[in-house]
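For reference, the entry.
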Amino acid sequence: MNIKTYDRPFIQKWLNAGNRTCPLTQQVLPHTILTPNHLVRGVISQWCRSRGIELSDSVHNINDEGVTDAIRDHFLSLLEKMSLTPPEQKKAAKELRLLTKRMPSFRALFGESLDAIPQLLNPFSENKSQTSIHPDLQEDVITTLLNLSIHDSNKKLVAETPKVIPLLTEALRSGTIETRTNAAATLFTLSALDSNKALIGKSGALKPLIDLLEEGHPLAMKDVASAIFSLCMIHENRSRAVQDGAVRVILKKIMDRMHVDELLAILAMLSNHPKAIEEMGEVGAVPCLLSIIRESSCGRNKENCIAILHSICLNDRTKMVHLVLSILILSGISIAGS
């Protein structure tokens, strides 16, 4: 895995804005937990000292919005409004969405009380289906959960609040495409913790993620693929993804050349599952993978294709003959019968 070092205030601002990719390579980050690079910082500090330059400790000024009593009172007031009339709920949810996006301190406030997230979800607690909730209210609440999940210390709390994952799972099926996309993004962000990966997998969230991937909406594809990839990092979720039909959906998208990088990485993870290999053979994965090896300039994609082809051949030796013949044909070598 390639490790990148960034100026902490810059990368923190990048993550706080909801980005979940490396700003340099655009690769999806496996998690958003920052690790201080003391070696680089020490070298920079030594260089500055040798030249009489004062190095400001900007790391401590990342979250310059202090939590005042006024902010805390406003926070509690907004949560109280989430149990009032629908118009008041809509107005409060909109403001909570904006504040948790702009102010890390507001995200942190949710971690101070076990009642805060349940209060946020009050509009969904009266035995109402999400389809009966106003689409704007649903979108604002789901997006607020996304903003909260960016805050590392909130990830466990958000995921383990009983109503959250079922709410996100249902949101994948209903609401605006922005709601569905943000629900997928929230599951991806929460899945940075392995314990959350297991929790999300057991909840049945993979199937609606795969269904949304199959729909192929351009706005949702990257977040959905990222969520599936992250969840499939643990073995039990790979089995669930295969059982839920991920292989055929992913191969169809790859054949259509949609998000090939992300989807090949998922397929490579699934390729050690016997049922996945069987489905790849039925769908005609080998010619597709060979064409990507020939066409792609991306070394990572070639490696994933080779890994998948290797698994296919190990599972079924007869596929080795077809694979060799295909390679010879692609190479322009003619084969004469005797």
